Amino acid sequence: MIPVRGFEGRTLAVFGLARTGLTAARALLLGGAKVVVWDDKAESREAARAEGFDLVDLSTADWSQFAALMLSPGVPLTHPQPHWTVEKAKAAGVEILGDIELFARTVNAAPEHKRPKIVAITGTNGKSTTTALIGHICAAAGRDVRVGGNIGQGVLGLDDMHGGAVYVLELSSYQLDLTSSLKPDVAVLLNVSPDHLDRHGGMEGYVAAKRRILLGQGKGDTAVIGVDDPWGQRICTEITAANRRTIVPISASKAMGRGVYVLQGLLYDATGERAVEVADLLRARSLPGRHNWQNAAAAYSAVRGLGLTAQEAADGLLNFPGLAHRMETVGMVGKVRFVNDSKATNADAARQAMSSYPKFYWIAGGVPKAGGIDSLTDLFPRIEKAYLVGEAAPAFAETLKGKARLAQCGTLAGAVAAAYADAAAGGQDAIVLLSPACASFDQFPDFEARGEAFRAAVQNLQRPAAKGARA
Question: What is the pTM of this model?
Answer without folding.
Answer: 0.80
